[in-house]
């Protein structure tokens, strides 16, 4: 399948907390240093998918120097994480990145994307952004794609110049919907690779069933040498 690149006028923003504090719910997967490597690998595979979609305007908001290095390797700019204020740290970081992206006169749409999409590929991201662009062209301010559970958010896309506060976190799909964002593919029939963010071992197993990105695959093997995934997506020792 030929993957047409995303519109050059789209900017993508990701937010990553300090790796030492990231993904505590993955503690069962392996020791802390290997877990940090896994989180870094998922970020790199997510950025590779963004890059593969032809998106050159990418911003990563983070307090972590290692994340800065990963972002730079993919040509992304980085911003320091701002004080959270009344928002959650994730939403404060995304709002900060979105504001900077909106300031670019060449940008028509700005997308906030989860940074732990271990199975994401360029074709899936391109398709979702194309549909978002079409919907936004009908006087809609914002669109979103729910996660695989239907309760969280994997992707939020906003028209340039529109102030729309991100509401990522528990119950974010309902929060974005209530705020006026239009849900794309509400039946969740498409874009499984986009919808599968990884917070728990079960999420990682679901991503493995779809096919992990190469960096995440190597990191999983490093975390659990000899690990493999059975047909139910459970990680087993061989």
Automatic annotation (TrEMBL):
One of its GO terms (molecular function) is phospholactate guanylyltransferase activity. Gene3D superfamilies: Spore Coat Polysaccharide Biosynthesis Protein SpsA, Chain A (3.90.550.10). Phosphoenolpyruvate binds at residues 153, 169, 172. Signal peptide: none annotated. Keywords: GTP-binding, Nucleotide-binding, Nucleotidyltransferase, Transferase. Its EC number is 2.7.7.105. InterPro entries: CofC (IPR002835), Nucleotide-diphossugar_trans (IPR029044). Pathway: Cofactor biosynthesis; coenzyme F420 biosynthesis. It is an enzyme of class 2 (transferase). It catalyses: phosphoenolpyruvate + GTP + H(+) = enolpyruvoyl-2-diphospho-5'-guanosine + diphosphate. Residues 217-238 are annotated as: Disordered. Belongs to the CofC family. Guanylyltransferase that catalyzes the activation of phosphoenolpyruvate (PEP) as enolpyruvoyl-2-diphospho-5'-guanosine, via the condensation of PEP with GTP. It is involved in the biosynthesis of coenzyme F420, a hydride carrier cofactor. This is Phosphoenolpyruvate guanylyltransferase. It comes from Gordonia hydrophobica.
